Amino acid sequence: MKELDVVKLKREFNGLPLGTEGTIVLEYDGTHFEVEYYDANGNTIDVVTTPADIIELVSDFVE
Asked: Record's Pfam families (predicted)?
């Protein structure tokens, strides 16, 4: 996974429910990412440092 990829949570995390989608905005070290999570309308819910093992790729960002 890399910056600007769309991901979703594989479990509840930091008050966000399973399946919440977000965009990776920063990769720290391959084990943690800063992810901007959003609702079904595209409104930002939160920006959270997230461990890589609890997110899965939804779609790759292609330049």
From this structure: DUF4926 (PF16277)
